[in-house]
Amino acid sequence: MKVSVIMPVYNAEKTVLQALDSLRSQTVVQSMEIVGINDGSTDGTLEILRKQPDIKLLDHSHRGIVPTLNDGLAAANGEYIARMDADDLCHPERIQQQAMYLDTHPDIGIVSCKVAYGGDRDKQAGYATYVDWINSLIEQGDIALNRFVESPFAHPSVMFRRDLFENYGGYRDGPFPEDYELWLRWMENGVRCGKVDQELITWNDPTTRLSRTDKRYSIDAFYEMKAEYLSAWLKKNNPHYPDIIIWGAGRVTRKRAEILTRHGSRITHYIDLKPRTLNCGTPVIHHNDIPEPGNCFILPMIGNRGIREKIRAFLRERGFTEGKNCLFAA
């Protein structure tokens, strides 16, 4: 078996058949298995799944997304594992294109793809903008350097080598988004990531999406988890470790930056439009007064994407190189 598609299903009676039909329409169905895991659905989902003779069906009581995903991984036989959700749609060549990518790039462990946004861009502008951002990250280097801004992948768009799960563990349950933690953990272990430069899945955006309703997906939970992996990266790659300069001196930015200090970093300065000294004694400098690239490491932590790009252009003009003497986070 070449590819196993792991699809957790919970109360998806209205969408699961369309999702399955999109998998059945793949150009490589002969070398693909579908593992559907019913997570204790209370609607008609289980009855629908039982009528599908071409899927490997697992059924258990409602336990949540992490044990459901890990059950699917344990039951999969494929060399490659593809993720899929029961309310999304695969384009016909998705599995073939991603499997070919892994076949021809033996150094890559995870491959994603561009995604078509399946929501209302006016009413759900934040998610739509996020889709545009992840679709802009194609090259391996761009994915790696931007992983501490936000998750660089739509979860149901990924395919990865089975041995990653076996070597570095599967999904972890905790107060954080399970997919983002998995990518950061695997990348921390040296796993390289790529992306097919084609839209191969429609990522629908229902109001019931877990990232909208589950407290694990709050901004604070996001950053608590992310800070651990960002701190590990800084310890390995910041030539001036533990010293860092944080670009952004607002209350929220300072709160998140302080988490890094608990992991060993030392904030020598903040950068803001208004130079001053904070109550904690840390000076705030204007961006025109930042040290030369060889004398510091700058960590911009600005969430606004438009401002982030202006900062990126400014740092490049001043001679800074991402991954060498600066890195973007949020």
Structure in words:
The protein is an alpha/beta fold. The chain folds into 2 domains: 3-214, Spore Coat Polysaccharide Biosynthesis Protein SpsA, Chain A, CATH 3.90.550.10; 219-317, Rossmann fold (3-Layer(aba) Sandwich), CATH 3.40.50. It is built from 12 helices and 13 strands. The chain starts with a strand and ends in a 13-residue tail after the last helix.
- Into how many domains do the coordinates divide? 2
Order of secondary-structure elements: EHEHEHEEHEHHEHHEHHEHEEEEH
Please indicate the percent range of residues in DSSP E strands (runs of 2 or more): 15-25%
| Count of individual helical segments | 12
CATH topology category name of the largest domain: Spore Coat Polysaccharide Biosynthesis Protein SpsA, Chain A
Uncertain stretches of 5 or more adjacent residues = none
Q: Can you summarize the main beta sheet?
A: 8 strands, mixed
Instruction: Give the CATH H-level superfamily of the largest domain.
Output: Spore Coat Polysaccharide Biosynthesis Protein SpsA, Chain A
Radius of gyration: 21 Å
Within the largest sheet, what's the order of strands? Answer: 3-2-1-4-7-6-8-5
Q: How far do the termini sit from each other?
A: 40 Å
CATH architecture assignment name of the largest domain: Alpha-Beta Complex
CATH class of the largest domain: Alpha Beta
Determine the mean pLDDT.
Answer: 94
**Shape category:** elongated
Structural class: alpha/beta
Give helix % range: 25-40%
Strand segment count:
13
